[in-house]
Amino acid sequence: MSPKYEKLQARIQEIQKFVSANFERDRKFKTVFQELEKIAACLKTEKIKLQIVSNNSIAARSLQIYFERHRLSQFYQVGLSSLPKQIEPVRSAGSATLVLSTSSNEKIYPLSTTETTSIGRNPDSEIAIDSSLYKKVSWNHAQISPCGNLAWEICDRNSTNGTYINGVRLQGCQKLQTGDRITLAASASSAYPEFVFEYSLTTEYPESLVEMLDCDIFCLVCDLATLTNAWQGVITIANAAPIAKCVVIGSIPSLTQVETWLRSQDLSDVFELVVLSLSSFSLQTQTSEINSVAQQELEKFCQSLETFIKGKPEDILAQRLTARIIKELSVIEQVLDREAEAIAQQLQQEEARIQGLATDDVKEQAKKALRKASDDKDKFFKQVKLELNQSKAALLDTYSKKSITYKVEEFIERLKPQVLKKGGFQYIQLRAENPVTANGNVNADLTYFCSHELKKWADKEWQLVTTTYGEGGLNAIIETVYKTLNFLPSINLDKSLFYSDRRIDIQKSLMNSFIEAPYEGRYQGVSPLTYVLKQIRANMMQFTFLVGFGAMFIGIRVSGGGKQVISSITQPLRENPILFGIVIFLLICLLTYTYQKDTTLQLEAIADKLRKELSNHYQSLSKNLVEKLVLEITTVLETEEKRLKDALEIANDLFTTYIIDIEKHQLLLKSNLEQQKIQLRNLDKEKADLQKLKRF
């Protein structure tokens, strides 16, 4: 082995030792180690690699056999492959970064291809700006988002002092171009951060194409009349690869077309054109002798290959293998750069966290939040109880048509009296027009009416308590208190401490059995005849006077005692039957009218008495039920008030525990910060060692 090969082999071993010590660090270290083993194995052969590529398998194989039988075999390792089906890159991966240059160093921030990157003084931003250095940058200043097709756009988030792209203030959003300068809160009186947007595109080719191009001499056997896109792609990629010599072998017609294309691409000086009788290879078997013309052409070509490597085979092989080694070292370098970048970002984040974990600020914020939440709670429940009592007073206001007392009285006034016979006696009973029970029990009707009306009122009141009273209701104050106390994302108060299944059991207050009020009275009626006789007996003097006065009015002279008066009056009536009949008829009508009027008045008097008793009873019952319903609502409110009070105490305990944890975490962060600084220094040393290994 030549000294140059020995030196290269020693360098490979040195790199392998460096790589093998970091297998657990990243899987790419093991991949690089495996590639280095392949490079070392290739070095041991000490042969130049000649790669034949063709779409004519017979001609290419025949050419390979000829080279292997020729004396070139002592210098060359001949490989054979067909034209790959996939020439285009497998994928193109774009990477975008923001570079922030400061007086002391340069910070690089990678941009995500899937998620939005926020920029601002907020420590939780993906790119957190140092508040002590750049005070005019807003808390949430701007954001950069991927917008498809490997592109990014920047949007200003209504910042106070604006975002500038290449000196022009940004209005809304704008797509970024590589090299754009992004300035936040540009000011002549204070410092401001300025980023540079950078974008790079990496291309990867199929593995078969990469292996095919890993050679020192690249021979394309082209026997096509037309140079296809696939051939053009292979030639273009081969030109960019670190290949010592590129040759296109073909017949006169095909080479003429190839030469024209190479000149159009400025590649005619790079690719050597060799004319061989490809048809002789295609017609002969792999083991037979080829004709003399082809023999001469081949011998001439082989001599040119011998001349090419004469005196410098080590340089050619070492150049290719060195390029491969540097490529693998670049992979390791990328890993180290990512690690360094990650550690640098962690350092920045840790420093920002330490600054953001000021216990004095947290203590003051917690104190203010607890005081505000407590004041809001007390104010709300005081206001709700006041509004609830006002609604209760309006419901019981006897002078209001909307009150329950008026509605009960109005309902009772509509009750109709009915005369019933039970046990040989007559009774006056009040009945509703549309009774809820089959037997027409007014107490059941009134109980249902009162319960129904009060349930509607209670449901409405509870709705107002939960959504309206106290400027938003119970739901609003609970949400307000929760948001006030939940200002620390790291604590994230459990909502179940504040929320519950708040319900009032209205039916429980209305389903009790109540004492019934009397709704019927005994009625002692008399027959019409009895009523007439009783009236005549009771009003005999008035009757005699009226009869006498009537007789005088009609011209009948009356004298003597009572019997004579009656006899004198009735004398004309006896003598005149028609007149007698008229008088009797009028007398019956008068008595009947009087009887009906007295009977109706008596019935109404009994009904009014019953109505009054019912009204007093159910108005009192309604007031009692209202008190129970208000008590039920008040009890639930007191429960919710206690729940919020307990939640405030729990929040206070959590804040206290959090502050203690912050102080402990600050010490831990400072310790981690020192360790990360040590890791960064060690990583810088490794990168420096890697740079030494790249010097061949």
TrEMBL record:
Domain of life of the native organism: Bacteria
Name of this protein: FHA domain-containing protein
Species the sequence originates in: Scytonema millei VB511283
Pfam families: FHA
Keywords: Coiled coil, Membrane, Transmembrane, Transmembrane helix
Presence of the UniProt keyword Transmembrane helix in the record: yes
FHA domain: residues covered: 117-170
TM regions (residue ranges): 540-558, 578-595
SMART domains: FHA (SM00240)
Protein's UniProt keywords contain Membrane: yes
PROSITE patterns found in the cross-reference section: FHA_DOMAIN (PS50006)
Positions in coiled-coil regions: 333-383, 666-693
